[in-house]
Design brief:
The complex is a heterodimer of chains A (about 260) and B (about 250). By secondary structure, chain A is an alpha/beta fold. Chain A contains seven helices and nine strands; from the N terminus they run βββαββαααβαβαββα. Chain A has two domains: about 10-70 and about 150-255, P-loop containing nucleotide triphosphate hydrolases (Rossmann fold, 3-Layer(aba) Sandwich), CATH 3.40.50.300; about 85-145, no CATH class. Classes of the chains: A alpha/beta (about 260), B mainly alpha (about 250).
Chain lengths: ~260, ~250
């Protein structure tokens, strides 16, 4: 992997749908180690963009660049998406075992990853025995266990209560900060404050076409301290993103009428 | 204590029904060939006990063999078909045809094909034919029931098809397959009894033959005793499948 090139990029990518207007053309560049938030209206194609970056969705035209090493892309879905019949440890070890790592090594690294997300005591718990927040942490550990170059998060915190969500975001920030090398993170959210707090760049997608219509850099170095949420610069950026988001929906509403 | 409370209502209801039955038979002076009282059935059960037990064993063996055959063919075919959408589309209608065709109607055919020298083989074939569909359908539905996001996760890590089958689709299919097996167990007993009725020659000495025999001699109490045996047999098979289900669930791959 070249240090200067993007870890993932979309170049004039269009996705045709059988029964909807096509998505795109999309242009997006993600540099190694940066945190990018994707915000947009429901149905704006946020999840599809994420799946394109993961290689889980095929582009109808255009170019998708995926520079992460094989097996070194992590994905966290909207729900924890754990295998209900397997315990936390087996769930987290799965990506390593699928790529042929010896069982003992996979288990050791899975234990490490679960400890890193604060679940070192719950290795043998089944998903049904875990709270929503803990299950999401297991899901995060599974995405991190391969030491990914690129971490993709599809509204992973949407279903959690605000306290749990904030704690998870801060933990994610901390994990990202100590990782060497730091993974690039692209995460989808409809929570503007969450986007600004976590990301270095916030990309607003057009409600109709899914095209990026605004790309705002957030001030201050990540990871941010908790009290940064009270900073005027933070508030200004939140307002700017909210305005861009409203504009992206307004144009599509005009287009629809 | 709680267990006792759980089984108290059904036991009480059964006892009440038996008492009403007994009383009705005695008060209305019903002829025993029409409806014998439960006490007569109990006597018949004891008297014909050894013969009934031998026959029950025959029926049980045939139903179990049929279940095994249906399980192997049903699971194997579902696995093969699950690999290809087109194969599934090709096979499903045929499987449904097999399911909706009344077993009594195909019994004479199967008797000709399998049963001329081996009546028991024909019974097993028919019972397997009716037990096949629930298993096939259960396994196939189960194989398709895996969480789509988990399927994507396996895509993401470029899982080998066998890894996907073993670590994702089979465990996802298990509850469906076991439910199919449970239904199939009941169907296998029905199939075995119907097949034996149709063959009706005494070449197989299962419970259905005992029922026919007792019926021809108007030994109604013995017929009812045979029915009791069949019910017990069904319950035993059901419990056996439930036991198998528990063992498999505990040892499924993680």
């Amino acid at each position: 992997m070249a240090d200067t090139g993007p870890i993932a990029a979309l170049d004039q990518v269009v996705v045709d749908w059988p029964s909807r207007a096509p998505l795109g053309p999309l242009d997006l560049t993600v540099a190694p180690g940066e945190i990018v938030a994707l915000v947009g209206a429901s149905g704006a194609g946020k999840s599809t963009t994420l799946r394109l970056l993961a290689g889980l969705e095929q582009a109808s035209s255009g170019r998708v660049i995926r520079a992460a090493a094989p097996g070194r892309t992590g994905f966290v879905f909207q729900s924890p998406t754990l295998m209900p019949w397997a315990d936390a440890l087996s769930n987290v070890a799965l990506p390593l075992e699928l790529s042929g790592a010896p069982k003992a090594e996979a288990r050791a690294r899975a234990t490490e990853a679960l400890t890193a997300v604060g679940l070192g005591q719950r290795l043998t718990a089944r998903p049904a025995q875990l709270s929503g927040g803990m299950a999401m942490r297991v899901s995060l550990a599974r995405a991190l266990v391969t030491r990914p170059d690129l971490l993709l998060l599809d509204e992973p915190f949407a279903a959690l209560d605000s306290v749990t969500r904030r704690r998870l975001i801060e933990d994610l920030h901390a994990l990202w900060a100590v990782a060497a090398p730091r993974p690039a993170i692209v995460f989808v959210t409809h929570d503007v404050e969450e986007a600004v707090y976590l990301a270095q760049r916030v990309v607003v997608l057009d409600a109709a076409s899914g095209r990026p219509v605004a790309d705002l850099t957030t001030p201050g170095a990540a990871p941010r301290p908790d009290h940064w949420r009270a900073d005027p610069a933070y508030r200004q950026t939140v307002e700017a993103v909210a305005d861009a988001l409203a504009a992206s929906m307004a144009t599509s509403a005009q287009g629809a009428s | 204590m709680k267990r006792l409370l759980d089984i108290a209502p059904p036991v009480a209801l059964t006892l009440i029904l038996l008492l009403v039955w007994e009383a009705a038979c005695r008060l209305l002076h019903l002829p025993v060939y029409f409806l014998p009282p439960p006490s007569d059935v109990a006597v018949a059960l004891v008297q014909a006990g050894p013969r009934l037990a031998t026959s029950a064993l025959v029926t049980f063996r045939m139903a179990l063999t049929a279940l095994l055959v249906a399980g192997i063919i049903g699971t194997g075919l579902a696995l093969a078909v699950s690999l290809h959408r087109a194969a599934e589309r090709a096979v499903r209608p045929l499987a449904v045809v097999l399911q909706v065709t009344p077993i009594v109607a195909i019994a004479p055919l199967v008797l000709i094909w399998f049963g001329i020298d081996h009546a028991e083989r024909a019974v097993v074939a028919l019972a397997a034919a009716v037990a096949f569909f629930p298993i096939f359908s259960g396994v196939l539905t189960g194989l398709r029931s895996a969480d789509p996001d988990l399927e994507r996760l396996f895509d993401l890590y470029a899982a080998h098809p066998l890894q996907r089958l073993w670590r994702l689709r089979l465990p996802s299919a298990l509850p469906f397959a076991l439910e199919g097996l449970r239904v199939a167990a009941g169907q296998a007993v029905i199939g075995a009894v119907v097949a034996e009725f149709v063959s009706g020659s005494g070449a197989t000495q299962g419970l259905a033959w005992r029922l026919l025999e007792a019926g021809n001699r108007l030994r109604t109490a013995e017929m009812l005793a045979g029915l009791v045996c069949l019910a017990v047999l069904g319950l035993l098979l059901n419990a056996a499948v439930a036991g198998i289900a528990r063992i498999i669930t505990r040892t499924r791959p993680r």
